[in-house]
Amino acid sequence: MSFINYSAREINCKLVYYGPGLCGKTTNLQFIYNKTRPDAKGKMISLATETERTLFFDFLPLSLGEIRGFKTRFHLYTVPGQVFYDASRKLILKGVDGVCFVADSQLERMEANIESLDNLRFNLQEQGYELDKLPYVVQYNKRDLPNAVPVEELREVLNPTGVPDYEACAVTGEGVFDTLKALAKQVLTELRKGQ
Amino acid sequence: MLNAQMVMYEEELSEIQEIADQLQQDSRARTILIVDKNGQMIANAGAGSDLDTTSLSSLVAGNVAATGGIAKLIEEEEFTGQFHEGKDISVHMTLVARRIILVVLFDKGTTHGLVRLRVKKASEALSDVFDRLAVKQASTPQPDLFAEITDADIDNLFND
Q1: Inter-chain CB proximity B3 and A128 less than 8 Å
Q2: Closest residue by Cα to residue A101 from A83, A117, A115
Protein backbone atom coordinates (compact mmCIF):
# COMPACT_ATOMS: atom_id res chain seq x y z
CA MET A 1 0.00 0.00 0.00
CA SER A 2 1.68 3.14 -1.14
CA PHE A 3 1.65 6.18 1.09
CA ILE A 4 1.39 9.52 -0.66
CA ASN A 5 2.19 12.47 1.51
CA TYR A 6 1.15 15.71 -0.16
CA SER A 7 2.33 17.66 2.82
CA ALA A 8 5.90 16.35 2.79
CA ARG A 9 5.73 15.76 -1.00
CA GLU A 10 6.72 12.12 -0.76
CA ILE A 11 5.66 8.86 -2.37
CA ASN A 12 6.44 5.79 -0.27
CA CYS A 13 6.21 2.25 -1.63
CA LYS A 14 6.90 -1.22 -0.25
CA LEU A 15 8.74 -3.85 -2.30
CA VAL A 16 9.11 -7.45 -1.10
CA TYR A 17 11.74 -9.98 -2.18
CA TYR A 18 10.27 -13.48 -1.97
CA GLY A 19 11.76 -16.90 -2.70
CA PRO A 20 12.94 -20.21 -1.24
CA GLY A 21 15.48 -20.45 1.57
CA LEU A 22 19.05 -19.52 0.63
CA CYS A 23 18.06 -18.25 -2.84
CA GLY A 24 19.78 -14.89 -2.23
CA LYS A 25 17.10 -12.42 -1.16
CA THR A 26 19.21 -10.95 1.62
CA THR A 27 22.24 -10.93 -0.70
CA ASN A 28 20.26 -8.83 -3.20
CA LEU A 29 19.54 -6.26 -0.50
CA GLN A 30 23.11 -6.31 0.76
CA PHE A 31 24.43 -5.59 -2.72
CA ILE A 32 21.97 -2.74 -3.20
CA TYR A 33 22.94 -1.37 0.20
CA ASN A 34 26.67 -1.53 -0.57
CA LYS A 35 26.33 0.13 -3.96
CA THR A 36 23.98 2.96 -3.03
CA ARG A 37 25.19 6.46 -2.18
CA PRO A 38 25.06 7.09 1.59
CA ASP A 39 22.59 9.96 1.18
CA ALA A 40 20.14 7.77 -0.74
CA LYS A 41 19.86 4.95 1.77
CA GLY A 42 19.03 4.36 5.40
CA LYS A 43 20.37 1.68 7.68
CA MET A 44 19.87 -1.92 6.57
CA ILE A 45 18.23 -3.98 9.25
CA SER A 46 18.44 -7.76 9.35
CA LEU A 47 16.45 -9.75 11.84
CA ALA A 48 18.39 -12.98 11.50
CA THR A 49 19.31 -16.07 13.50
CA GLU A 50 22.81 -16.62 14.84
CA THR A 51 23.62 -18.54 11.68
CA GLU A 52 22.59 -15.54 9.58
CA ARG A 53 19.38 -17.04 8.31
CA THR A 54 16.59 -14.48 8.06
CA LEU A 55 14.26 -14.90 11.01
CA PHE A 56 11.69 -12.20 10.35
CA PHE A 57 12.81 -9.77 7.66
CA ASP A 58 15.56 -7.58 6.22
CA PHE A 59 14.69 -3.96 5.70
CA LEU A 60 16.38 -1.36 3.51
CA PRO A 61 14.96 2.13 2.92
CA LEU A 62 16.03 3.63 -0.40
CA SER A 63 15.36 7.03 -1.78
CA LEU A 64 15.47 7.19 -5.56
CA GLY A 65 15.19 10.89 -6.26
CA GLU A 66 12.40 13.20 -7.27
CA ILE A 67 9.64 12.79 -9.74
CA ARG A 68 7.61 15.91 -10.51
CA GLY A 69 8.67 17.43 -7.21
CA PHE A 70 7.81 14.35 -5.16
CA LYS A 71 10.52 12.37 -3.38
CA THR A 72 10.22 8.67 -4.18
CA ARG A 73 11.08 6.36 -1.35
CA PHE A 74 11.12 2.60 -1.53
CA HIS A 75 11.12 0.30 1.46
CA LEU A 76 12.70 -3.01 0.48
CA TYR A 77 11.85 -6.06 2.54
CA THR A 78 12.86 -9.72 2.31
CA VAL A 79 10.89 -12.58 3.80
CA PRO A 80 12.38 -15.54 5.64
CA GLY A 81 12.64 -18.26 2.98
CA GLN A 82 12.58 -21.30 5.23
CA VAL A 83 9.31 -23.19 4.92
CA PHE A 84 8.41 -23.15 8.61
CA TYR A 85 8.45 -19.34 8.89
CA ASP A 86 5.25 -19.08 6.88
CA ALA A 87 3.37 -17.06 9.49
CA SER A 88 6.06 -14.36 9.34
CA ARG A 89 6.06 -14.33 5.54
CA LYS A 90 2.35 -13.58 5.50
CA LEU A 91 2.83 -10.57 7.77
CA ILE A 92 5.52 -9.06 5.58
CA LEU A 93 3.32 -9.26 2.47
CA LYS A 94 0.77 -6.95 4.09
CA GLY A 95 0.62 -3.65 2.28
CA VAL A 96 3.00 -4.73 -0.50
CA ASP A 97 3.20 -2.65 -3.69
CA GLY A 98 5.47 -4.90 -5.72
CA VAL A 99 7.02 -8.37 -5.49
CA CYS A 100 10.31 -9.77 -6.75
CA PHE A 101 10.48 -13.55 -6.81
CA VAL A 102 14.09 -14.65 -6.47
CA ALA A 103 14.55 -18.15 -7.88
CA ASP A 104 17.56 -20.35 -7.14
CA SER A 105 18.81 -21.56 -10.54
CA GLN A 106 20.34 -24.77 -9.19
CA LEU A 107 18.71 -27.96 -10.41
CA GLU A 108 18.34 -29.37 -6.90
CA ARG A 109 16.40 -26.24 -5.79
CA MET A 110 13.79 -26.49 -8.52
CA GLU A 111 11.24 -28.09 -6.25
CA ALA A 112 11.87 -25.47 -3.55
CA ASN A 113 11.33 -22.71 -6.14
CA ILE A 114 8.00 -24.16 -7.22
CA GLU A 115 6.87 -24.62 -3.63
CA SER A 116 7.84 -21.05 -2.73
CA LEU A 117 6.09 -19.60 -5.77
CA ASP A 118 2.90 -21.51 -4.91
CA ASN A 119 3.25 -20.25 -1.36
CA LEU A 120 3.62 -16.65 -2.60
CA ARG A 121 0.47 -16.92 -4.69
CA PHE A 122 -1.45 -18.49 -1.82
CA ASN A 123 -0.28 -16.00 0.81
CA LEU A 124 -1.10 -13.05 -1.44
CA GLN A 125 -4.57 -14.41 -2.02
CA GLU A 126 -5.08 -14.66 1.70
CA GLN A 127 -4.42 -10.93 1.91
CA GLY A 128 -6.79 -10.21 -0.96
CA TYR A 129 -4.10 -9.69 -3.62
CA GLU A 130 -3.59 -11.45 -6.90
CA LEU A 131 -0.05 -12.02 -8.03
CA ASP A 132 -1.04 -11.50 -11.68
CA LYS A 133 -2.36 -8.03 -10.90
CA LEU A 134 0.57 -6.84 -8.80
CA PRO A 135 3.77 -5.26 -10.09
CA TYR A 136 5.92 -8.37 -10.25
CA VAL A 137 9.33 -9.44 -11.58
CA VAL A 138 11.26 -12.70 -11.47
CA GLN A 139 14.99 -13.04 -10.91
CA TYR A 140 16.92 -16.21 -11.78
CA ASN A 141 19.76 -16.00 -9.30
CA LYS A 142 23.03 -17.94 -9.06
CA ARG A 143 23.53 -18.05 -12.83
CA ASP A 144 27.25 -18.46 -12.20
CA LEU A 145 26.92 -21.92 -10.67
CA PRO A 146 27.77 -24.96 -12.81
CA ASN A 147 24.56 -26.78 -11.89
CA ALA A 148 22.32 -23.91 -13.01
CA VAL A 149 19.27 -24.96 -15.03
CA PRO A 150 18.99 -23.25 -18.47
CA VAL A 151 16.95 -20.05 -18.26
CA GLU A 152 14.38 -21.29 -20.81
CA GLU A 153 13.50 -24.17 -18.50
CA LEU A 154 13.27 -21.96 -15.45
CA ARG A 155 11.11 -19.51 -17.34
CA GLU A 156 8.71 -22.22 -18.46
CA VAL A 157 8.12 -23.40 -14.92
CA LEU A 158 8.50 -20.23 -12.85
CA ASN A 159 7.33 -17.50 -15.17
CA PRO A 160 4.44 -18.86 -17.21
CA THR A 161 2.79 -15.44 -17.42
CA GLY A 162 5.90 -13.88 -18.94
CA VAL A 163 6.52 -11.01 -16.49
CA PRO A 164 9.89 -9.20 -16.83
CA ASP A 165 12.62 -11.58 -15.70
CA TYR A 166 16.35 -11.19 -15.13
CA GLU A 167 19.37 -13.41 -14.78
CA ALA A 168 21.47 -12.54 -11.79
CA CYS A 169 24.38 -13.36 -9.60
CA ALA A 170 23.54 -11.50 -6.42
CA VAL A 171 26.97 -12.08 -4.84
CA THR A 172 28.72 -10.13 -7.60
CA GLY A 173 25.70 -7.91 -8.18
CA GLU A 174 25.04 -8.87 -11.76
CA GLY A 175 21.38 -8.27 -12.58
CA VAL A 176 20.54 -6.99 -9.09
CA PHE A 177 19.88 -3.38 -10.06
CA ASP A 178 18.17 -4.37 -13.32
CA THR A 179 15.70 -6.37 -11.26
CA LEU A 180 15.11 -3.56 -8.78
CA LYS A 181 14.68 -0.93 -11.48
CA ALA A 182 12.19 -3.05 -13.41
CA LEU A 183 10.13 -3.57 -10.29
CA ALA A 184 10.26 0.06 -9.14
CA LYS A 185 9.25 1.17 -12.60
CA GLN A 186 6.26 -1.16 -12.61
CA VAL A 187 5.17 0.11 -9.18
CA LEU A 188 5.32 3.75 -10.28
CA THR A 189 3.51 2.93 -13.51
CA GLU A 190 0.84 1.14 -11.51
CA LEU A 191 0.42 4.23 -9.30
CA ARG A 192 -0.12 6.31 -12.40
CA LYS A 193 -2.71 3.87 -13.72
CA GLY A 194 -4.49 3.79 -10.39
CA GLN A 195 -5.29 7.47 -10.44
CA MET B 1 -7.07 -6.21 -5.88
CA LEU B 2 -4.72 -3.54 -4.68
CA ASN B 3 -4.93 -2.18 -1.18
CA ALA B 4 -6.19 1.34 -0.86
CA GLN B 5 -3.25 3.68 -0.54
CA MET B 6 -2.98 6.23 2.20
CA VAL B 7 -2.91 9.87 1.23
CA MET B 8 -1.87 12.60 3.64
CA TYR B 9 -2.77 16.27 3.28
CA GLU B 10 -1.23 19.37 4.83
CA GLU B 11 -4.21 20.15 7.04
CA GLU B 12 -4.55 16.71 8.63
CA LEU B 13 -0.81 16.35 9.03
CA SER B 14 -0.64 19.54 11.04
CA GLU B 15 -3.47 18.30 13.26
CA ILE B 16 -1.61 15.01 13.77
CA GLN B 17 1.57 16.92 14.53
CA GLU B 18 -0.27 18.97 17.13
CA ILE B 19 -1.58 15.84 18.82
CA ALA B 20 1.93 14.38 18.89
CA ASP B 21 3.43 17.57 20.35
CA GLN B 22 0.70 17.83 22.96
CA LEU B 23 1.11 14.18 23.94
CA GLN B 24 4.84 14.61 24.33
CA GLN B 25 4.32 17.53 26.68
CA ASP B 26 1.43 16.05 28.67
CA SER B 27 3.04 12.66 29.16
CA ARG B 28 6.54 14.10 29.70
CA ALA B 29 7.81 11.52 27.22
CA ARG B 30 11.04 11.75 25.27
CA THR B 31 9.72 10.99 21.84
CA ILE B 32 6.43 10.31 20.12
CA LEU B 33 6.21 8.53 16.76
CA ILE B 34 3.09 8.10 14.70
CA VAL B 35 3.60 5.26 12.26
CA ASP B 36 1.29 3.54 9.81
CA LYS B 37 0.90 -0.23 10.11
CA ASN B 38 3.17 -0.79 7.12
CA GLY B 39 6.06 0.94 8.84
CA GLN B 40 5.95 4.40 7.27
CA MET B 41 6.43 7.21 9.76
CA ILE B 42 3.74 9.87 9.52
CA ALA B 43 4.82 12.31 12.23
CA ASN B 44 7.05 12.56 15.28
CA ALA B 45 7.60 14.83 18.24
CA GLY B 46 10.88 15.15 20.08
CA ALA B 47 12.91 12.83 17.86
CA GLY B 48 16.47 14.11 17.70
CA SER B 49 18.58 13.67 14.59
CA ASP B 50 20.45 10.84 16.32
CA LEU B 51 17.31 8.72 16.40
CA ASP B 52 16.89 6.53 13.30
CA THR B 53 13.15 6.99 12.96
CA THR B 54 12.94 5.12 9.62
CA SER B 55 14.37 1.92 11.09
CA LEU B 56 12.44 2.37 14.30
CA SER B 57 9.15 2.74 12.40
CA SER B 58 9.76 -0.37 10.34
CA LEU B 59 10.68 -2.45 13.40
CA VAL B 60 7.72 -1.17 15.40
CA ALA B 61 5.41 -2.12 12.53
CA GLY B 62 7.02 -5.57 12.35
CA ASN B 63 6.55 -5.96 16.07
CA VAL B 64 2.91 -4.95 15.95
CA ALA B 65 2.32 -7.22 12.94
CA ALA B 66 3.88 -10.17 14.80
CA THR B 67 1.76 -9.45 17.86
CA GLY B 68 -1.31 -9.23 15.64
CA GLY B 69 -0.39 -12.64 14.24
CA ILE B 70 -0.23 -14.03 17.78
CA ALA B 71 -3.64 -12.51 18.55
CA LYS B 72 -5.13 -14.19 15.51
CA LEU B 73 -3.70 -17.57 16.49
CA ILE B 74 -5.21 -17.46 19.96
CA GLU B 75 -8.43 -16.00 18.60
CA GLU B 76 -8.10 -12.70 20.36
CA GLU B 77 -9.41 -9.84 18.28
CA GLU B 78 -6.29 -7.72 18.66
CA PHE B 79 -3.81 -6.54 21.26
CA THR B 80 -4.22 -2.81 21.24
CA GLY B 81 -1.35 -2.01 23.57
CA GLN B 82 2.22 -3.20 24.05
CA PHE B 83 4.86 -2.21 26.52
CA HIS B 84 8.61 -2.87 26.46
CA GLU B 85 10.33 -2.01 29.69
CA GLY B 86 13.98 -1.04 29.57
CA LYS B 87 16.49 -0.01 32.23
CA ASP B 88 16.49 3.61 31.11
CA ILE B 89 14.02 3.93 28.28
CA SER B 90 10.71 2.16 27.86
CA VAL B 91 8.44 1.94 24.85
CA HIS B 92 4.66 2.03 24.82
CA MET B 93 2.88 1.17 21.57
CA THR B 94 -0.82 1.50 20.88
CA LEU B 95 -2.79 0.53 17.82
CA VAL B 96 -5.13 3.36 16.84
CA ALA B 97 -8.12 2.92 14.51
CA ARG B 98 -6.62 -0.43 13.41
CA ARG B 99 -4.16 1.19 11.07
CA ILE B 100 -1.96 3.62 12.98
CA ILE B 101 0.62 2.87 15.66
CA LEU B 102 1.24 5.45 18.34
CA VAL B 103 4.69 4.96 19.85
CA VAL B 104 5.87 6.66 23.03
CA LEU B 105 9.50 6.47 24.17
CA PHE B 106 9.85 7.54 27.77
CA ASP B 107 12.39 7.50 30.59
CA LYS B 108 12.39 7.90 34.37
CA GLY B 109 11.13 11.47 34.00
CA THR B 110 7.58 10.15 33.84
CA THR B 111 5.58 7.05 34.74
CA HIS B 112 3.96 4.34 32.71
CA GLY B 113 0.63 5.24 34.29
CA LEU B 114 0.79 8.84 33.12
CA VAL B 115 1.86 7.75 29.65
CA ARG B 116 -1.07 5.35 29.38
CA LEU B 117 -3.50 7.97 30.57
CA ARG B 118 -2.33 10.58 28.07
CA VAL B 119 -2.08 8.05 25.26
CA LYS B 120 -5.74 7.22 25.70
CA LYS B 121 -6.74 10.80 25.09
CA ALA B 122 -4.37 11.21 22.14
CA SER B 123 -5.62 7.94 20.59
CA GLU B 124 -9.15 9.23 20.52
CA ALA B 125 -8.07 12.47 18.89
CA LEU B 126 -5.94 10.61 16.33
CA SER B 127 -8.72 8.18 15.60
CA ASP B 128 -10.95 11.11 14.79
CA VAL B 129 -8.39 12.69 12.44
CA PHE B 130 -7.76 9.43 10.56
CA ASP B 131 -11.48 8.76 10.21
CA ARG B 132 -11.91 12.18 8.65
CA LEU B 133 -8.84 11.61 6.49
CA ALA B 134 -10.32 8.39 5.11
CA VAL B 135 -13.54 10.17 4.21
CA LYS B 136 -11.65 13.06 2.63
CA GLN B 137 -9.42 10.73 0.65
CA ALA B 138 -12.43 8.85 -0.69
CA SER B 139 -14.31 11.97 -1.68
CA THR B 140 -11.48 14.19 -2.96
CA PRO B 141 -10.28 13.60 -6.48
CA GLN B 142 -6.50 13.26 -6.40
CA PRO B 143 -4.52 15.97 -8.14
CA ASP B 144 -3.28 14.86 -11.52
CA LEU B 145 0.21 14.28 -10.18
CA PHE B 146 0.54 10.77 -11.50
CA ALA B 147 -1.17 11.35 -14.79
CA GLU B 148 1.58 13.81 -15.59
CA ILE B 149 4.37 11.37 -14.88
CA THR B 150 5.90 10.18 -18.10
CA ASP B 151 7.98 7.08 -18.80
CA ALA B 152 10.94 9.41 -19.18
CA ASP B 153 10.39 10.74 -15.64
CA ILE B 154 10.51 7.22 -14.29
CA ASP B 155 13.60 6.36 -16.33
CA ASN B 156 15.32 9.51 -15.09
CA LEU B 157 15.10 8.25 -11.52
CA PHE B 158 17.55 5.54 -12.40
CA ASN B 159 20.12 7.62 -14.21
CA ASP B 160 22.86 7.97 -11.65
Answers
A1: yes
A2: A117
Note whether A3 contacts B5, CB cutoff 8 Å.
yes
Contact residues on chain B for A134, CB-CB shorter than 8 A: 2
Contact residues on chain A for B9, CB-CB shorter than 8 A:
6-7
Q: For residue B58, give the 3-state DSSP assignment.
A: helix
**B52/A88 CB distance under 8 A:** no
Range of the domain at A188: 3-194
Phi, psi (degrees; rounded to nearest 5) at A58: -105, 150
A143-147, A160-164, B131-135: least confident range: B131-135
Q: Which amino acid is residue B136, in one-letter code? A: K
B28-64 pLDDT, tens per residue? 999 999 999 989 999 999 988 899 999 999 999 999 9
ipTM: 0.81
Structural domains of chain B sorted by starting position, each given as residue range(s) with its CATH number in brackets: 12-141 (3.30.450.30)
